[in-house]
Known about the structure:
By secondary structure, this protein is mainly α. It has two domains: 4-187 and 302-331, Rossmann fold (3-Layer(aba) Sandwich); 206-297, Orthogonal Bundle (Tyrosyl-Transfer RNA Synthetase). Helix content is 54%, strand content 7%. The protein has helices spanning 17-32, 44-47, 54-71, 88-97, 102-106, 109-115, 124-138, 152-168, 216-225, 244-257, 261-268, 273-299, 302-331; strands at residues 4-9, 37-42, 79-82, 144-146, 179-181. The strands form two sheets. The protein has a three-stranded parallel β-sheet with strand order 1-2-3. The protein is globular and about 70 Å long. The protein starts with a strand and ends with a helix. The mean pLDDT is 96. Bound molecules: ligand 1.
Amino acid sequence: MGKKIFSGVQPTGNLHLGNYLGAIKNFVKLSEDKDNECIFCVVDLHAITVKQNPVELKENIRETVATFIASGIDPKKNIMFNQSQVSAHSEAAWILSCVARMGWLNRMTQFKEKAGKDKEKASIGLYSYPILMAADILLYDATHVPVGDDQKQHLELCRDIAQKFNNDFGIDNFLKVPEPLIQKNFSRIMSLKDGKKKMSKSEISDLSRINLKDDESLIINKIKKAKTDTLPMPTKLDELGKRPEVNNLLIIYSSIKDISLEEAIKEFSRKNFSEFKEDLSQSINDKIGPITKEIKKLLNDKNYLDKILQEGCIKASEIASKKINKIHEIVGF
Length: 333
Ligand code: TYM
C-alpha cells in the first residue's frame, strides 16, 4: 500500500546542502513512487516565529517551491502549497495546543537551542511551533513524514498529541499517528567547520555550509577550507567515530553519489585529502549546479510559481477543511 507523505520546509532563504540531502532529496525519491500521495508544504507560518522581512519572505516562499521543483518534484503529480494560505493549519494548531501539555513542550531541545540564553525574549510562536507542525501533519492523515534528524523529537511530540486527542475524545485512530522517515546516515549533515554541529542556515559563518545558491567556485573554495584532521584518509568504517569532520565529508560524498559509506571509504582509502576534496566538490557541483540553475530560471517566472502554490492551496484546502470540520464536531463546536 502507498504512503501518505507530508513534509515541510521553512522559507527562510539560504536552503543548504543539509536541507537537500537530509530532506528534499528524499522527498523526490518518495514522490517518484506512484503509490505514494505526497504533500510538500512551504511552512511560512513557522518562518515568522523569528523576525522576517515581509518582502524577502514573499520571495523566499517562491524560492522554496522553486527548489522543490528544481530538485525533481513534479508539481503536476504532487501537492505543493504554502501553509498560511490554508487557514485550517492555524485553527488546528490552536485546538491541539489545548491538548498538548506544557511539560511536553518544555522538553523540546530545538526551542532551547534557538531561544538561547534569553528565553524570556523568544516569541511564544517559537515555543509552540511543534504544535503547529503536528497540526500540519495530522490534518492530512499523513502516514509517513520524511525529515532530518533534528525534527525527530517534534515528530514524537506529534505522535503524543495525536494519541492524547484520540484518548481524550474517545475516538480510536481519528488522528493518525504518523511514522517518521529518517534516512540512515544522511539525516544529520554537519557544519563544514565543526563536525559536531549541525549544518544550519542560522550559523554566522557562511563557510560552515554549502547553500543551494552557491556557485561552482564558491563550493570549491568552501570544500577546500572545510575542516579535516592530520591523519590520512580512513580505510575502515570504525575509524570514523573519532573523526567527525572526515565522517561528515564522506557522508556528503556517499549521499550525493548514492553509494554506501563503506564504498566511499574504499574509493578514497590511501588517496590524499586534496584528491578527495577535489572529487567531493566536483560531485557536489555536478549535483547542485543544475538545481541552482533551474531555481534561478524558475524564479524569473513568478506567475508560474504563484500558480503552482494557488493550485496546491486549493487541493490542500479541500483535504484540510474536511478534517478540521470533523475536529470541530468532535470538540463540540
Ligand atoms: P527546516 O525548514 O528547518 O528544515 C527542512 C528540512 O531539512 C532538514 N534539515 C537537515 N537534515 C539534515 N542535516 C541538516 N543539517 C539539516 N538541516 C535541516 C530538517 O530536518 C527538515 O526535514 N519544523 C520543520 C518544518 C516543518 C515540518 C512540518 C516538517 C513544519 N511542519 C511538518 C515535517 C512535517 C523545520 O523547521 O524544518
